[in-house]
Write a structure and sequence with these properties.
By secondary structure, this protein is mostly helical. It has helices at about 1-5, 10-35, 40-45, 55-65, 65-95, 105-115, 120-135, 145-165, 170-180, 185-195, 200-215, 215-220, 230-240, 250-270, 270-280.
Length: about 280
Amino acid sequence: MNSVLRLLPRPLQIGLTVFLLTIVGAPVGYVFLASVNTDLAVAAGEFWPERVSVDNYVRIWSTVPLGRGLANSLLVAGTVAVTCAAVAVCSAYVLVRHRFRGRRTVLRALLGMQSIPGTLLLLPVFVLFATIGSSLGVPTIGTRWSLVVTYLTFGLPFSTWIMVTYLRELPGELIEAARVDGAGSWQILLRVVIPLSWPGLVVAAIFAFLLGWNDVLFASVMTDVDTRTAAVVLQVFGAAQEGGAIPPYGQMMAAALVCAAPVVALYLAFQRYIVGGLTAGGVK
């Protein structure tokens, strides 16, 4: 049966897997080797370091405000992830299990919002927050909460559509059985839907987390020195080294790996839920 279902011969499968792993792993391996090498060696094009040193990983914490940037990124991206997951599962439950006028329009609008490039909304979003801040007399630009609201604008439609796709696969008999037992809509959501939707919730939360973690465009405009995220800190660090002496390549590579580590750890920790959420295989 396996030989019938296999799409490619096993040698070709192995070769293709090795090829893909090489494409993905080679840049990461070079970044790691450069992070434990000297700046002169990296500038000279040396691939293998003569002496492995972790000095770059120690220096980055004093050279750039990386710790503050990581804290800001964790706070902003974590808030966006939790909020997107919570709001998305409630919205998707209503869109999937209830029939009302305008339901299809809302679903189409969720898809349509994904086609709008973020670069087109950068100036309108900045002007909107600046106007609100000047009208109400409250700080908006340069605050973390403004960045959270901005990311929710882009993260909620996508997270909601993920949950809509996932909740469509949930057996309707379970919900009907809970309703027959006297459970209300909130009880069904909290006791039936959410416990069965963990893979979808994890996927929605991780995608929203990545949106806040990787963004540079909005974070560079909506933050100041104290509220910069890790991505902006890296951008400023790299731009400050242009011209003059040899840039600290080792520290830049080390900082990039440190900033990527939380995302890798997140994927490894929730790998089982991610696979189930993307394939809807967690629904039985």
